[in-house]
Specification:
This protein has 628 residues and is an alpha+beta fold. It is built from 14 helices and 24 strands. The chain has four domains: 36 residues; 122 residues, Glutaredoxin, CATH 3.40.30.10; 231 residues; 115 residues. The two termini are 19 Å apart.
Length: 628
């Protein structure tokens, strides 16, 4: 019997010892096995994507990463501190997976210290809080002393944290800046013109703001329009308004794409930038362009002779001196809802304005994957070019006979995959196929097509003025940012491009937020009822004052009675409001109590019960064996 009691007490004692061992081993593992980690989050927030790991494997020389965070000054900002700790954990994962090629250091730049001076020298942007400036950024330095920085980690951009860090590292690994070839019949890059008078220096016409912005991070090369020489040094070909292209030019572009070059093509069914100055509504010149000779075989084409109008995306335009602005359905103001939130290119854009854009038509092609970056609403409608021309002087023309198509039209796309040549016979005019001729992509090719050209012209993207001899530029919208994002993102390695948006680190309690929303609605309802009573009482007072015909004493008594009645109603309403607030608070507190009990006691209790059940079943099996 004593032995039986000892065996029955063993599970309890074993569980106590087990809990002690778990706590002890947890403390030891914290220091002894710090490098061993498991990412159990739903969206693998602390794991690196294959694209990032591929970039880390290409590191030949060590890269120094310095994570600047003012942890002391941020102690009173819990949300920032929590996000900073998660950024730090992800950076540790970069260091761990780099095989010793990344050296991470954590810097706490206190005010008036040498660390703060370094943060300022690196160009980090401090966040201003009552506790003092808070630095929250990253600096990368390669063995050649080149520096790249993330001035501040934007908590609203946390889905792209991995992309931003990997892009910084990839930029440090590049030996040269991105080389962008510009091919266009339009004067995107300023040209040298004749001197105004003999003996004076020649002048240069101004470049588009797009070109000047590209020059901040890329090398630009203007290519010959009729027979472009697209050399191996070109990383990205920016093709703007490809109208009446020669076969030699088309062949050069075709082979450039198949050889691994990135093509960004801006096509347009009605290009305002290509119209002669003062062109009226009766446009006879052909100002349209497409690249269907190449891209149609790759699954992307422009719907011919069609301009998109969309009353759901109309832009307000001036209608004349003193007249109110009116909606123009052929100028589309794209908001985040119309742009791909999962793409690094478009995720952070708020307002892109396309003027007289076209619509793209997509067809499935084996081996090619197409991603839509921007599209219309289902209220869109296709109009002809003549209607577009008439709308220049009268925006109402865009709405004549308007019938929504109930179809969303793609406006900008990116396609990647194995492309086949449009010239299976080889170069045009060649007697036999050249040895360098490519019949399909060497690896994975990449193109982007946007059905508008005007959006990157100065008239629709920027306000340029001359201030004391200096050219001052104010961007009007995110048009230039869209073009720059395309060049910057697509010019990266295939590994960098493959990094998609991740889930957010912040995981709110949806149930708590639902309670708060419902409570806010109830509170608002009570507040509106109270305001209605106040307005009703005021109206009664005004009516009483206007209709009073008796003596001053009677009138005063009536006013006092009305005021007393109003006070009673107000007191009653305020009492109900206090009850609503109390119920809201109690509901949230009760939910918090339930969550606390579940996290603190329920899960451990379940584990203990399962352990006890397992021990009891094992003892039963053991006793059966002993009896046998």
């Amino acid at each position: 019997m004593a032995a039986l009691r000892k065996r029955s007490l063993f599970p309890v004692g074993g569980i106590v010892v087990l809990l002690f061992l778990v706590l002890l081993l947890n403390g030891i593992a914290r220091y002894a096995f710090g490098a061993l980690s498991f990412d159990l989050t739903e969206e693998k927030l602390y794991s690196l994507s294959p694209g990032t790991i591929k970039i880390l494997h290409t590191i030949d020389e060590p890269v120094q990463l310095q994570f600047f965070f003012s942890s002391t000054e941020a102690t009173q900002i819990p949300a920032l501190s929590v996000y900073a700790s998660r950024v730090r954990d992800l950076l540790y994962e970069y260091e761990r997976r780099s095989g010793g090629k990344i050296n991470l250091s954590i810097v706490n730049p206190r005010p008036d210290t040498e660390q703060e001076e370094w943060a300022q020298k690196f160009g980090l942007t401090p966040l201003r809080f009552p506790t003092g400036p808070v630095y929250f950024g990253l600096v990368g330095i390669n063995v050649f002393g080149d520096e790249e920085a993330i001035p501040v980690f934007d908590i609203t951009r946390q889905e792209y944290l991995e992309y931003d860090i990997s892009k910084l590292i990839y930029t440090l690994l590049r030996e040269d800046r991105v080389s962008v070839g510009i091919l266009s019949p339009l004067k995107i890059i300023g040209e040298v013109t004749r001197a105004p008078q003999p003996g004076m220096m020649p002048q240069r016409s101004p470049s588009w703001v797009l070109a000047s912005q590209l020059e901040t991070f890329a090398k630009l090369e203007l290519l010959d329009w009729d027979k472009p020489d697209i050399g191996d040094n070109i990383d990205v070909l920016l093709l703007v308004h490809p109208k009446t292209m020669t076969k030699d030019a088309l062949y050069a572009i075709d082979q450039f794409v198949l050889d691994g070059g990135v093509l960004i093509a801006l096509v347009d069914p009605f290009c305002q930038a290509d119209l002669p100055p003062g062109a009226g509504p009766m446009v006879t010149a052909d100002n349209s362009s497409s690249l269907d000779q190449l891209t149609k075989r790759w699954g992307v084409s422009l719907i011919p002779d069609s301009v998109v109008a969309d009353i759901g995306l109309s832009t307000k335009v001036a209608s004349g001196p003193g007249a109110p602005p009116q909606e123009f359905a052929m100028w589309l103001s794209l908001r985040p809802e119309q742009m791909n939130a999962d793409s690094v290119v478009t995720s952070a854009l708020d307002n892109v304005v396309l003027a007289w854009p076209g619509a793209l038509q997509l067809e499935a092609v084996e081996g090619i994957e197409t991603e839509v970056l921007a599209s219309t609403t289902k209220k869109a409608m296709l109009r002809d070019r003549q209607t577009a021309a008439m709308s220049q002087s009268d925006p109402k023309q865009a709405l004549r006979g308007y019938i929504p198509s109930n179809e969303q039209y793609p406006l900008a796309v990116v396609s990647r995959g194995v492309f086949k040549t449009n010239f299976p016979e080889g170069a045009p005019g060649a007697s036999q196929s050249s040895a360098k001729h490519l019949s399909q992509s060497k690896g994975s090719s990449l193109i982007a097509v946007i059905a508008d050209v005007d959006f990157v012209s100065d008239n629709y993207s920027a306000a340029v003025r001359n201030l004391l001899g200096r050219r001052v530029v104010n961007l009007l919208n995110d048009n230039i940012s869209l073009a720059l994002n395309l060049v910057e993102n697509l010019s990266g390695s295939e590994a960098l491009i493959s990094i998609r948006s991740r889930g957010k680190f912040s995981r709110p309690f949806d149930r708590v937020q639902e309670i708060e929303r419902n409570a806010a609605l109830r509170y608002k309802s009570e507040e509106m009822r109270l305001q209605a009573k106040l307005n009703n009482a005021n109206q009664r007072l005004q009516k009483l004052q206007g209709s009073a015909r008796e003596g001053e004493q009677v009138f005063g008594k009536a006013v006092l009675q009305e005021i007393q009645k109003f006070r009673e109603e107000r007191i009653e309403a305020q009492k109900r409001l206090r009850e609503v607030r109390r119920n809201i608070r109690q509901e949230k507190e009760s939910l918090g109590t339930v969550l606390f009990l579940l996290n603190t006691f329920f899960i451990p209790l379940v584990l203990v019960v399962l352990s006890v059940c397992y021990a009891v079943m094992r003892n039963k099996r053991r006793r059966k064996v002993e009896r046998v």
